[in-house]
Structures are given as C-alpha cells and as structure tokens.
Amino acid sequence: MTEDPLQLAAIGIIAAFLALVSLGSIEKRPVRISSDTIKLTRAKIIENQAASRDAIAALREGRRIDINTASAADLQLLPGIGPKLAQRIVANREKLGAYRSAKEITRVKGIGPVTFERIEALVTTASAKPESLQKYK
Prior knowledge:
The chain has a two-stranded parallel ribbon. It has two domains: about 1-45; about 50-135, Photosystem II 12 kDa extrinsic protein (DNA polymerase, domain 1), CATH 1.10.150.320. Helix content is about 45%, strand content about 5%. By secondary structure, the protein is mainly alpha-helical. The protein has six helices and two strands. Helix 1 packs across helix 2 (about 35-45).
C-alpha cells in the first residue's frame, strides 16, 4: 500500500501535536489550525464513506455528533476513535442504554480523560430521553 507523501506529512504533524497535548506541554489556549490539518480532516471524512451524511455535515458545520444515535462509522470521524473503539461505544450504549451526558462515554474501555478531552467539543447527548435512561434507575 503506497501512501501519499503529503498525507504522511500531515499525519506526522497531527501525531506530534497530539503527543505534545498528551504530555501536557501545550497549555489550554486557542489553537491555530493549519491548512494541512484541515485538508487531513477533510480527507478522513472522504475516506470514511460509510459515515452518514448527517454526521459529516454536522462536523463540517461545527455542530456536534450525537453519541446516542451515531453509528460506529459516524463515531470514527472523531479524533482518536478507530473502528474497534467505535464498536465498543455502540455496544456499551446498546447494553447499558443511552448516555445521559457526554462525560458518560468515559465508561467505555479505551476512552480516558485525554481521549474525552479531544472529543468533548464534538459530541452531544441531545437525543437522550427519559425513557431511554430507565436502565440507570
């Protein structure tokens, strides 16, 4: 499998940025997103053709993805969420019921504080209805 050198460079830049964030060497402050990062994000959206048009549109328009209705393919659009983790999120939701808050996604093995911090601004639980929360009572 051959990779485009520009794509590999963009992946390297993002990996370095995420490594710095996870080490805590970057303070919480506004981040300037380079055009390479934007191109890579667009490429990820295009590559993930299984994702719904609604989820893709939501991210493009700055809206959040509802983790209570998103498919595994939709969840893979989020940074740090791959196929296996996306499947765990869906399985956990099906087993225990809807997430009452975005923070509850941390009950899924593999989503710790760092991953949650990366996706927190991109997710919502807008579809959580009282009847879907019965398993928690």
